[in-house]
Design brief:
Blueprint (H helix, E strand, L loop, with lengths): L1 E6 L5 H11 L2 E6 L2 E6 L1 H10 L5 E10 L3 H9 L13 E7 L7 H20 L12 E7 L3 E7 L21 H10 L8 E3 L6 H10 L23 H14 L8 E5 L2 H13 L7 E4 L12 E5 L10 H18 L3 E7 L4 H5 L5 E7 L2 E9 L10
Parallel strand pairs: 5-6, 8-9, 8-11, 9-10, 11-12
Antiparallel strand pairs: 1-3, 1-4, 2-3, 4-7, 6-7, 12-14, 13-14
Length: 384
């Protein structure tokens, strides 16, 4: 039984724990930003292949108390690195700290790198090369005020890079955050879904893949996962898990998913990304202004990442836009549940609708709320 830690966008830890339980994890414990768990290597492979919420899955290789950089060096040197990966692999060390007394994270990063390389040199007379851009092996050090934990990254590139998008737009939403928002909204395959500010199509692609039971890790090429470069990689097990996931994929058909955007280039990019993901013709994407478009079904779920202060320069523009958005929802979308991710705390007041839920989420470092508005016929306000 190995010890792992899976990271995710803050606010989605409970959903990540569900994914890990489905993969067979035990002793799962959620903390801000991720979930610690135990399991066999099959659990790790499944989590990388099938979790839509995880950002990375890290394998714990060393843990102990520390008070200085030398303590961290000794902890790192104590791990038997030559048994974990080949000396020909390139290497990079990442450090994350919370309340650490160490003065320089750059220096402790160097000390961990030295410890790994020194252990290889003692054992094999050679040391791995450092590659800061695209390393074969990623070593992660996490420091609290008293304890140090060292992990090997089993994911490689972040898991939200599904390998499906080639055309991007400004202020993109990461795929695992989009998948989490869909689940927080209670969306299920078969329920009508509209993203009226679809940008590059992230919500639509995630929903389409969920509808087809398409495991997110299947879009990666062979050798792209970090665990494939470790000495204990079980190629036969990995082939079996990939084959089983591929067999679960449902037959492609037209889906009750709609996207639109007021910008023609965003519509073109969303269509390009859907086609590249093998979803061409399954999702309806058109150019339309949210303030004017009609709902594609009598009821359903509307989800959007609207412009807010970080993306739309002027507060005056926002103050003018949001009341019109509220009017459009009340006029055209009764019967729909509408979800907006925003860092703007004024959004509910300006829209003129009372949110039934406000879920804290982080879009990268930006603290946001996922606002739920249940639109009913007529006004929410009681007569005086």
């Amino acid at each position: 039984m190995e010890q792992f830690f899976a990271t995710c966008p803050r606010g989605l830890e409970a959903l990540l724990a569900e994914d890990l339980a489905a993969a067979g994890a035990v002793s799962a414990r959620a903390v801000p930003g991720g979930v610690a768990f135990a399991g066999a290597w099959e659990v790790c492979y499944r989590a990388n292949l099938e979790s839509r919420i995880a950002t990375r899955v890290l394998w714990r290789v060393a843990h102990g108390a520390y008070a200085s950089e030398d303590d961290v060096y000794r902890l790192a040197f104590g791990a038997d690195w030559p048994k974990l990966f080949d000396v020909a692999s390139t290497l990079r060390v990442y450090v994350t700290a919370q309340r650490s007394p160490l003065k320089s994270l750059e220096f402790v990063t160097l000390r961990v790198k030295d410890a790994v390389c020194d252990r290889f040199r003692d054992a094999a007379g050679r040391r791995p090369s450092v590659d800061t851009r695209s390393p074969d092996v990623r070593v992660h050090l996490f420091l609290t005020d008293r304890e140090a934990t060292i992990y090997l990254d089993t994911s490689g590139e972040p898991l939200y890079l599904r390998g499906h998008k080639i055309a991007k737009v400004e202020a993109p939403l990461k795929e695992n955050l989009a998948a989490g928002i869909l689940r927080l909204a209670g969306w299920k395959p078969g329920v009508p879904l509209l993203d009226p500010m679809c940008g590059s199509g992230t919500f639509l692609i995630e929903a389409a893949q969920m509808s087809l039971a398409d495991a997110p890790g299947l879009g990666r090429d062979p050798g792209e996962f970090g665990f494939e470069r470790l000495a204990n990689f079980d190629a036969a097990l990995w082939r079996r898990l990939r084959a089983e996931a591929a067999q679960r994929r449902l037959e492609a058909k037209q889906l009750p998913l709609w996207g639109s955007d007021s910008a023609a280039d965003a519509v073109a990019r969303a269509r390009q990304n859907l086609a590249y993901a093998g979803l061409d013709g399954l999702v309806t994407v058109e150019r339309a202004d949210l303030l004017e478009r009609e709902p594609p079904a009598p009821e359903g779920i509307l989800v959007a990442n609207p412009p807010y202060g970080e993306r739309l320069g002027s507060s005056e523009a926002l103050a003018a836009f949001y009341p019109k958005l509220g009017d459009a929802l009340k006029k055209r979308f009764p019967g729909w549940r509408c979800y907006f991710l925003s860092a703007d705390a004024q959004l509910p007041k300006l829209i003129g609708l009372k949110p039934s839920k406000k879920t804290p989420l982080f879009n990268g470092p930006l603290e946001c709320r996922l606002y739920e508005f249940v639109v009913v016929v007529g006004s929410h306000r009681r007569p005086r």
